[in-house]
Specification:
This protein is an all-alpha fold. The protein is 80% helix and 2% strand. β1 and β2 form a beta hairpin. The protein is elongated and about 85 Å long. Keywords: Membrane, Transmembrane, Transmembrane helix.
């Protein structure tokens, strides 16, 4: 019964994922052949070039401080580092979810408690996995499409402000994902080890009798 339900859920997930992938590919096609977005990309790259040439750290028109060229390079380097760490963490979480899924269905249909335990652990790991995926993404032409009519130094300042906010979001997300997944995985492993130890003791006592 549980295996059949899991198969149906897996089929629904596969269908939804396929539709989402097709929609995303269609979205990429639209942006590929839409001239306005290519112009927006060119403006964004030119604005980044202005940031690389900045020599002073001073507030912009909105009161946000614009970094120097060196500070901007450090900002980009820190973003790359947190994105790389998030990618590694997401890989670990996907592996852990697969391992607990295999553990839950390793005992046959009669081990309902094991399946419930594995399902609970997987559900608890989904939120940290989602936050680690947030850490992988980067600001692109779609993300900053709400920049409006900004150009030149104003656009550069807006982009740098978005980068700083993006770094802050990714750092908070990575910290939550790392701490939450660490607690869940370590606790689950301890429960599995204690359960295995208890079963060994029961087998040993049964053999002694």
């Amino acid at each position: 019964m549980i295996s059949a339900l899991a198969g149906q859920v897996g089929l629904y997930i596969l269908i939804v994922s396929s539709v989402a992938e097709l929609a995303y590919l269609n979205n990429l096609y639209i942006y590929r052949y839409f001239p306005c977005n290519r112009e927006s990309l060119i403006q964004r790259l030119e604005a980044y070039a202005l940031l690389k040439a900045a020599t002073t750290c001073e507030p912009d028109g909105e009161g946000h401080y614009q970094l120097t060229a060196g500070g901007h390079e450090v900002l980009l380097g820190t973003l790359k580092k947190i994105e790389a760490k998030s990618a590694v963490l997401s890989t670990i979480l996907v592996f852990a979810i697969g391992a607990f899924l295999a553990y839950g269905f390793s005992g046959g249909d009669d081990h309902v408690s094991k399946k419930m335990f594995a399902a609970g652990v997987i559900v608890l790991l989904l939120l940290p996995l989602g936050f680690s995926f947030v850490g992988i993404r980067h600001l692109d032409v779609v993300t900053i499409s709400d920049a409006g009519e900004l150009s030149g130094q104003c656009l550069a300042s807006r982009l740098q402000t978005d980068l700083v906010k993006d770094l802050s979001l990714k750092e908070y997300g990575f910290r939550f994902s790392l701490n939450a997944s660490g607690v869940v995985i370590i606790s689950a492993i301890l429960v599995i080890v204690l359960d295995a130890f208890t079963n060994l003791q029961l087998c040993a006592s049964g053999a002694a009798q």
